[in-house]
Amino acid sequence: MDLHAPTDQHRPQDGPALRPWGQLSSREQLELRIEYGKYLDQLPPTCMIGLKQEYFRAWLQEQGIDYEPDRQDRG
Description:
It contains 3 helices and 2 strands; from the N terminus they run E-H-H-E-H.
């Protein structure tokens, strides 16, 4: 699965374009959530939703995915 296919979306500092989260298939999103869960187990726990969203956004950006929680919630 190629999660780093270039698009005309945001580009992190001269890197490849980020794929928007909403353009991923349900399967791709699920696979990323599973992998993120493994990563999350290594972080200190938090109850702050904003911090959780920021952790997820930053991790996804490292995977080549653009995720903005406010945009995703509008469905």
